[in-house]
Request: fold
Amino acid sequence: MRLTPILMGAASALAFTVSANAAAITIATVNNGDMIRMQGLTSEFNAAHPDIEVNWVTLEENILRERVTTDIATGGGQYDILTIGNYEVPIWGKQGWLLPLEFSADYDVDDMLPAIRGGLTVDDKLYGAPFYGESAFLMYRTDLLEKAGLTMPDDPTWEFVGDAARKMTDRSAGINGICLRGKAGWGENMALVASMANSFGASWFDETWTPQFDQPEWKETLQFYADLMKDAGPQGASSNGFNENLTLFQQGKCGMWIDATSAGSFVSDPKQSTVADKVAFAIYPHKDGVDNHGNWLWSWNLAIPTSSKNADAAKTFIEWATDKAYTEMVAGKEGWVNVPPGTRTSLYENQNYLDAAPFAAKAKEAMDAADITKPSVKPVPYTGGQFVAIPEFQSIGTTVGQLVAAVIAGQSSVDDALAQAQSTTEREMRRAGYGR
Amino acid sequence: MARAVKTSTRVSYTIAAWVVALLIFFPILYTIITSLKTEGEAIAGFNLIPSFSLESYREVQNQQNYIKPFTNSVVLAVGSTVLGLLIGIPAAWAMAFSPTKRTKDVLMWMLSTKMMPAAAVLVPIYLIFLRLGIMDSRIGMTVLLMLINLPIIVWMLYTYFREIPGEILEAARMDGANLWGEIWHVLTPMAVPGIASTLLLNIILAWNESFWTIRLTTTNAAPLTAFIASFSSPQGLFWAKLSAASVMAIAPILIMGWFSQKQLVRGLTFGAVK
Amino acid sequence: MATRQTASIARLMRLPAIVVLFIWMIVPLAMTVYFSFRYYNLLNPAAGGWAGFENYQYFLTDPAFWQAIRNTLAIVLGVLAISVVGGIGVALLIDQPIFGQGLVRILVISPFFVMPPVAALVWKNMILHPGYGVAADIAKFFGLQPVDWFASYPLFSIILIVAWQWLPFAALILLTSLQSLDGEQKEAAEMDGASAFSRFRYLTLPHMSRAITIVILIETIFLLGVYAEILVTTNGGPGYASTNLPFLIYRAALLNQDVGGAAAGGVVAVIIANIVAIFLMRAVGKNLD
Reply:
């Protein structure tokens, strides 16, 4: 229990005058399980750093992004630490909105997974410290696949996935062959659809920044996705995001699910998942003949805005929350399976972790396979993977996401959606001054 | 009511009214019930009898301290309403008892200030708040909420005051009462029900304002609207937790509304009684 | 009957409200108009300068623009229709001599106290969710396929949620009006042998007309600005099926971070809202005197 706000205010004001080192930092974060756990461990941080008072602002992801963007762009200085994605870090770093991070030698920056670190680096400077990272992989039910008379190949193709999903589907028993994201949003359905498009050989823009939705690869991607959802997807797929699909999978209602690797610990935790002992994992599918596994790579990172008035204290916190000791502390308290994954090589060399997390090897394989410097097999002017690392993508991705969701909801055809996606993206790119 | 009503009619009306009332209330009722379930029960299908587990409330409280946003909600809602009344009562009074040709237009203009979409003025207001140094402060939020609701306050009071017969005023004047005496001794008692319901309605509106209260606060002044914004799409099973957080966000205002419902209604006439 | 002294005191009493509201209106409005003629995107600070009418042109040619106008009107009219008609019905019912009237009234008015995001979350997750909502449970009970409301009937679902919040307000005001109806008049009409319907049509309804006007006016002001329910439930989709004008502006301002474009949208919305207000005053304003 905290003190009353007034007392707290007085205490922090007092602390300011007494000690020059004392500081209060405000951390903006999203309401994901790992972040909430970090919040719960604040007392541990304070045990080591009693002079730094930590205030948390927890918000839903989209509102957090809005709030933080407005604040950082107007130099508001409301936050000292931001929780932002590897989508924002390079863009904001380039704008000069974030402080470059330099850590002491114990922190061992070189231990960071190269793919993740590369996504957070601009001009050789690191602008965000990864808190956890993920790629995407295929989760499937071994029992249902066996029942369908199939075995999972090492490197599944979309043709195989489509075939398997349709064979596993048994709607009278409440089993859907495959659950995929459908809820509109650049970080929701478009994370899946964009990585899927990558693995079908499509791209968002050509080298002159012309949108590519009129190309056959996009049509193939969307048609495949729409048909698959119709034949083997769950009811109401167009409003399902990560969380909804997770719930469905945990309850045994999905034969397969392609989503973030961080889902691995949730589906294989017997306390939450009714199918924990029947789950296996495979690498993200690709189209036969296309050497691309979607390039899905996401990390939630801690960064310091230049407007922060307590940058030193903020850095102290970031160092605490993202180094190896934090991982070990969480492992000690909550078990190895619950440590924030996907940021450090050493974690995947730790036998304790590999024993506790059956999904770890495949997750690492997925992360290693993701190359955000080369999202598509076609030549493109952008980096990214399941997103395009330009500021306009939030808006473009969400608009296209809406059009795709309308297809899944049965309210629009694939051709109409792609035609609209093409024209609206052209419009926004013109507005943003590309090719001006 | 003087007429005798047949008991059978009364019973059938009673049944109809209760069915409608429960239907309207059902979403809230079901949320309360779900908040007392475990997460497993919450998604196990329709069930009106929870296991009365308080686990979700505990988890919500562990994750987000409730006291601070609750206090902020109270301070902002009450503060902005009182401030609004201080400015609104004299204005409405003057408009009702010394109307000019333009009074109606002024009222319509006041209401029209509510028509600018909040999102369009976010950055201007954000910049102003930063410049004035009132970002994430209770003072700033109180003034802002007052301004948002002031048109409604003036308008409600105006329509209510207008129903007060002018003759009483004149009678008092003949007795030699001065203007302030007039206001204080004669009219204020008659105006109390109208002021009371304006107060209640505005506390409700201010409590529920959920654009600015989320965008202009971080920790110091964040009320319950910001509290609920941190639960709107969490990971894992969340139905019971979301219900508990929802109940915590609406319970105070709901209970206040229930207890003051008579006062709220009495003055909520908008001159409709004419 | 006002003397010069009271008139000047009255002016003094009006002044604070008018001044603060004027400042509150003019400063953001001036800034908004100014921004609406400039390139101003938070995500792209490098691009600044005068934009002429480009922001307006961009906003008005948005592929979602006309649908957003239609949806805005549909939400306003749909919610007004449900809340006024439903409100009259509920008010008439509660006005009857019933057992437990106080409690019934408390239950009926409750949704009005619920903050919009919570209302939307409750409807989205508890009631209309295709997997775990009560509506789905009911459908399953009858052996039907549950409906995915927000995907199949997005605009209707939103109107339903908003109407649920505003119906109690309408019912409450109309009830107050009903209770002021002269009992003797009612009895006289009854004695004359007027049917229940004609009593309602020629006595009750005209009596309530002023209250109905008030309800329409106040609700319209709030309904023109509905966005939270959309943000929480459908995010304006699928496609643009549930995007209204405030939400379109919300998207420009907070997703695109396009301050210039959002400002232009705000100016357009203010103009449209004022047209609606003038139209409304013409249509029902005479009831207010």
